[in-house]
Amino acid sequence: MTPKALFAASATAALLFALPASAAELTIGFSQIGSESGWRAAETSVSKQEAAKRKVNLKIADAQQKQENQIKAIRSFIAQNVDAIFLAPVVSTGWDSVLKEAKEAKIPVVLLDRDIDPSGKDLYLTAVTSDSVHEGEVAGDWLAKTVGDKACNIVELQGTVGASVAANRKKGFDTAIAKHANLKVVRSQTGDFTRAKGKEVMESFIKAEGGGKTICAVYAHNDDMMVGAIQAMKEAGLKPGKDILTVSIDAVPDIFKAMAAGEANATVELTPNMAGPALDAIAAFKEKGTVPPKWIQTESKLYTAADDPQKIYDSKKGLGY
Amino acid sequence: MTALLPRRGIAQILALIVILAVDRVVSPQFFDLRLQDGRLFGSLIDVLNRGTPVALLSLGMVLVIATRGIDLSVGAVMAICGAIAASLADSHSLPVVLAAALGAGIVCGLWNGFLVAVLGMQPIVATLILMVAGRGIAQLITEGRIVTFTSPDLVWLGNGAILGVPVPVAIALGMLILTGAVVRGSALGLLIEATGGNARASELAGVGTRAMILAVYVWCGVCAALAGVIAAADIMGADANNAGLWLELDAILAVVIGGTSLFGGRFSLILAVLGALIIQTMNTGILLSGYPPEFNLLVKAVVVLAVLLLQSPKLSGFAGIMARLRRTKS
């Protein structure tokens, strides 16, 4: 693989001459936010796996949660004339000038996991993200289906106040259960997306709802809060997963451990595999000139105890969650 | 006992009683207690249990503040020590785990104390260094993941009970008694106050101010380490990103609510712990009330303001407030 060959494989060249540039020759630069959470670490390791599967040379730059580092990384990718750039933007604004530079260099940019502000829509090829409103809907639909016609009082553990993911996951869930008069959210508090706060808030929910007897289900905006809530229920002498149904979002390994032990019922996956669809889109774009849609939505898959949680736990635990 | 609970404690006790009464109104079962798996269970126990980390932090913080210092790094030290405890828990015995975590706390305290007492840095800047770097160190230890463990010994520290009392509460009580006995049972407390009141004069009078400052930061580190171990034991895992996050501010607030001046010189251990309990009673009350979470911080700010106004010498008592209002109107 010579640098010359890489230069030739720019987007226009592929379009004009329809070169059979196979994915094996692609070099892609990935500006990752950093290691802000376990999910982020898993996204990085899955990206490496997906790239290796397709024999793509993936260069990952860790920005340590700083936008200026991401901009530097993108400039260096442009200087190296990579075939494409993946960007997981740490913030949604301030990308215009660096993305213009990439556009002038004819290097397609794919956003992973997060979107940028509307003014920059023509500056990137596509965005691969999950729909967090839809995630909430999937969770709500599962609960509605599982409960049936029984009256069900739900307590909700919200994410951090002001976080868009929290607002969206709440909105989606509310929409899904609005169709069912027997489902009602009786208490809703923020657990800041953490285990410790999830546990503390659940403790108070249990006390406020007659020792937990009137709670039929818990909905948590992420699995970590649910893991904390499960501990709170156990300490109160309740059986999570049986006395109180649980549904949460993210699909981190520890929730599968709880599921395998019968203490959790369902989780909606926020897939760490954002790079897979992005790599496919880039390959199609390079080979056939297929322009992908502006937004590629990842699947929000529902997992329950029926999906062999122990096996999923074993496969996920090495990803760095 | 009079030395431990001075007359100035009345405002704090009053505030606690009022907040407890409000909690009783928003949640009628607030004072209900029962035994659950050999452990007392109820909102009151939640207040004590959840208040433990901040109470422990405030025990160390109040001594630091008494020397006219401040320690912003306690939250990060919690994260470091929790991470160490969680990483060692499943492969080592409890004494080793505790020794490692407390040892790390001592090292952190020595570092802060060295910067302040020996290099003469301003405490707020000196401890800011570890506040920022410490969380990074904790993340390095956990590799950014939540390190979980199953060791029953360590889990007992967070979720066990001694005669029905949750272990964390017993530990905090033990630390309060130990700290009180050491600083008030000897002249140490007086020397700490002298250091904070006027370091130069105390030094000339023969007080080892450097040793005093070093000692209080080390003690603060030990308290933070214990709080970190308890926080990790509570959730059976170390969450380096979130453990102890912003708790340094709650600890400082607890000390201030307890009537200790940030200018140093005078302190009360028991009132600092009472301050921590006031904060937690309020937090638990907010959670029980069912208000939307957007109100949490607002309610907290209003209550803290009220408690601090209650203590203000210029605004002491309702009559004083009214008199002032009348004066400003005319």
User: Gap between N and C termini of chain A, in Å?
Assistant: 34 Å
Biggest β-sheet of chain A, characterized? 6 strands, parallel
Query: Shape of chain B from CA axes?
Result: globular
Distance between the termini of chain B: 46 Å
Give, in order, the helices and strands of chain B.
HEEHHHHEHEEHHHHEHHHH
Q: Please report the total strand number of chain A as a whole number.
A: 12
- Main sheet overview of chain B: 2 strands, antiparallel
Helix content of chain A: 40-55%
As a percent range, the share of strand residues of chain A is 15-25%
List SSEs of chain A in N-to-C order.
HHEHEHEHEEHEHEHEHEHEHEEH
Strand order of the largest sheet of chain B: 1-2
Largest interface: A-B, 35 and 36 residues
Rg on CA atoms of chain A, Å:
22 Å
Derived from helix and strand composition plus strand pairing, the structural class of chain A reads: alpha/beta
- Structural class label of chain B: mainly alpha
Strand content of chain B: under 5%
Overall mean pLDDT of chain B:
92
How would you name the oligomeric state of the polypeptide chains in this document? heterodimer
**Could you list the spans of chain A in which at least 5 consecutive residues all have pLDDT below 50?**
1-23
